[in-house]
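Now read the record:
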Amino acid sequence: YLSYSDPHLTLPTKFTSYVQLPARIALTGDVIPLQEGKTEFAIKSLKETILLENRTSNQASYSVSGVLSSSSASCKSWCDKFQEILDGKLTYVPYKFVTRTCTFFDISGGTHEVHLNDVDWSEEDLLLPFSEKLIDGINQSEARRRALMFFSFVYLNVNARDAFMLSIDRKGFDILAKVPSVVATDGTCNYRWKELRISFKEEVPDVKAFCNLLVEMEEATLRDINSYSGLG
């Protein structure tokens, strides 16, 4: 997300002031406090989300529960955060996004009005509620981070010395890898951090499919690495 306080600098101008334009486009518009009568609907939706996440966690396979349980205690899922709101532990003010005020910014910084008939409900993302705990669970494990290094080598031909998971989605994931940079005059190698993207051949529908695919990828990369070394 991008925020700034200069009222004379438009968002497209801010975008184009960067050397590299953002990979994603942006939508802007007005938000207004939700009417009291509609707050109940928002609370009902939160409860349904919590029930779905709890059901998914309770029925999770070993590959899923192993990663989720590895996340740190301070890393909370959407379910935990929403429950704190419903329990009154957190104060909140619900807002709604006014779609008729929506403006679309493309990757070149151009602006376009958005008509209501162009706006549709997004597809439900069953992976997103668990993304934060999945990322933290992977990064807390040396073995899983080593798997990210294997992925970088086999799929991207990048020899990473260390790696962390940055973000995940149904189409793949982003890695922050420590890769060789410049060789110094004394022969030592300097390193720099670089973002890498590994894409799936097909979208994964949920957290179970995501974790199962990571396991399959790890098994495949180990076979490839063993064949490179002549141990396979």
Observations:
- The chain has seven helices and six strands.
- The chain has two domains: 11-128, 141-182+217-232.
- The first strand starts at residue 26 and ends at 33.
